[in-house]
Amino acid sequence: MSIASHSIPFGLILLIFLLALPACAFAGFHFGSHELRRNPSSYAEGKLPGEASLGALLALLGLLLGFTFSAVLNWREASVSAVVEEAAALGTAFLRADLLPEAEGRPLQQALLGYARTRVVPQGYRPTRENIDAFVARSTEAQAALWPATMAALTPEVPAPVATYVAGGITEVLDAHSRRVAAASKSITSGIWMLLTFAAGSGVFIIGNRAALQGRRLSWRTLVFSLVLTAVLVTIEDLSRASDGFTVVPQTPLIAAVADMESALGAAALASAAPSP
Q: Which pTM does this prediction carry?
C-alpha cells in the first residue's frame, strides 16, 4: 500500500476545470449552430430530440458526483482522525516513558521526540512521489530507532507491569503510523476522474448544443451551471488532497505534541543542571 501522490499542482487543476467546462458549453453551442444552419427543417419547434437523454445524463452525473463527494469526505475525516490519534499515541508513550528511571527513560523520550518531528507535514508541502518517498524515508529511519530504544530502556530492574505499560505505548505509536498510512493511501482513481470529467463535459456540451438548436443564445445560466459544476469537481479534488489545496489536514495536534515533548525535556534538562541545595 502506497501513499497517494498528486503530480499535477492543485492550481493547475483549478485552471483546467475553469477553462474546460465553459469551453465545452461553447463548443456544443457552435456545433449546434452549424447543424441548425445546415438543416433547419429538422429542428422545427416540437421536433427537438434528446430531452430524455439529457435528463438521464445529468441524473447520472449527479449520482456520480454525490457518491464521489461522499467518499472523499469520509477519506478526509479519516485522515484528520489519524493525525489526532497519532498525536495522542505519541504523547501517551512519552508520558509512560517518564515512569522509567531517568538514565533509561530519557533516551527513549528523545527517540520519541525525534520520530514525532518527522511526522509533521510541513506547510506548503507538495505531495509528489519524490517528496512522499523522502518524507517516508525520514520517518521510517526515525521509527526504526524506537523499538531498540525501548528494549534498551526496559532493563531487568524495571518492574514487569511498568515495562508492559511502556512497551504498550510504543506499539500504539507504531500502530498509529499504519493507520495514518492507510488513511493517506485512499484516492480517486484516474478511471473515475476520467468518467467524472467526461460526464460533466458531455452534460455541459449537450446543454449548449440544445440552446443552439432551439435558436437561442448561449445564456448566462449555462455558464453559471458550468461554474457550479467546476466548483463541485474542484472541491472533490481539494478534499482528496491532504496537504495542498484550499483545505489541508491540520497538523496542529502533532505540532502541539512535539512542543509539549520539547518543553518537558527542556524542563527536565534544567532540573538536572540545577545545583543541589
A: 0.84
